[in-house]
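User: For my dataset I need records formatted as: sequence, then structure tokens, nothing else. Please produce one.
Assistant:
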Amino acid sequence: MQAARAWLNQDPDPETQAQLRALINAGGDGDTAALSDLHSRFDTRLAFGTAGLRGEISAGPNRMNRVLVSQAAAGLATYLLRHAAPGVTPSVVIGYDGRKNSHVFATDTAALMAGAGVRAILLPRLLPTPVLAFAVRHLDASCGVMVTASHNPPNDNGYKVYLGGVNNGAQIVSPDDKAISDEILRVAADEHVPHLPRASYETAEETVVQAYIAETASIAHTPRAQVNSVYTAMHGVGWDTTRRVLEKSGFDLPTLVDAQIAPDAAFPTVAFPNPEEPGAMDLAYETAREVNAELIIANDPDADRLAVAIPDISSASGYRRLSGNEVGAILGWRAAALATSDVSDPGALACSIVSSPALHAVADAYGLRFVETLTGFKWVSRVPGLVYGFEEALGYLVNPDSVRDKDGISAAVALLSLVSDLKSEGTTLAGYLDRFSEKFGHYASGQISVRVSEVSTIALVMTRLRESPPTHVGRIRVDEIDDFRWGLGDLPPSDVLRIRLTDGSRVMVRPSGTEPKLKVYIDTRSTVGTLVERRAAAQAALDELDRGMRALIE
């Protein structure tokens, strides 16, 4: 109760003030539910890590709100000032999307950064995350902050941090996350938010957005054929920028999923604004059927991810959403084919350890280096000599010279350009996927996600797999198990197991970094026989490993 009253005294938001005041009053009257709620909010605080901050908008240190964001901004400002070169004023560029409170969190950050002595530049309006990632490099800023919760539930928001200079505009990694977190905790302990100094900040010119549009449009050549496509922004901020990029690239504009095209913090047509979630693409399928579309492209709400669907007569909806691994592999093939050969440094294709090994086969075929990283684009984007990178969770980096983060808009342009070329040759994306399987082998991938009520359950399962390693998964024999717990090769330590099977298949097991889930990633491959036989063999192995892993972990 004491902590809640102290928090209330520095909260500038009338909505969270009223919420907290009601809980304090009810708790003071002995309401056990109110006291339990207060414990949930005040027993701990949202941890600032390599993903920055992300959580539900509500009062208290374990939620996203103006007090927490103010403390984060002041702590980050101190970190930037401590790490600036002598005589150099550090700078920060700040972006925000269309979620609840994104604008106010961004303007609080800008004012507090300026008040602390950091040059603060606010992007001119709500914009996609890739524009902010671009702006860090374009403006040569010391730091970037993006206020977004990406594809989280509607009442969430978050705070992503990028670093310039030697970090090239990539998201923070250790040890910077710990150093920033320490400064935030010091502010929370020693400072009173209303007393933190504020000052006026700059607003970036529209030329920053125009530069992003020009750079992104340049990754595609003049279309050889126009594509009848459908686009959804999933109630996010992607469409305006995407439209301008497509116009500059010379593409006909897609048919829009009108109900999802404008930013709307309530996300009224989707239970969960993530293109991977069941039902999220239903309106896009409906629109596509109406216009007989050849392609569906979807961004998540902050437009850093891309989902793709193609016609499929075997599907009830008439369309099939491609997996992130399928899109990642074909965009990787495109990138490898376009890469300029450099004997001294052939460049690298990169993906996370849980993404499909198909990219490795592409790299080998084109004489490029292949690099695996830990999960997260904070790692993928830092690979030296990067030509292209992806993650199976719909994240693709096709323009590393401009943006050091996943970018759903540039990926959409690259994909449209590919489909346009294929159409001019009389084929489709489905046909291109078949060609991939014929050239590199057919890859199949699957995922098991087990949600637990007690997080400790996940640790018990991981311990059991380590102490009693399986000799078989289903009927397929295990060759070896790699434990990333102490680091492996060039990779830092991570709570991940990689199970290699005798048939060349691979299983990855790891706890989710954001939810109480144990996640299993299964990848199989077949290079023998006809295309039909390859598909059948890869799928049979996938089914067997899925059954076997469920028996081992559930």
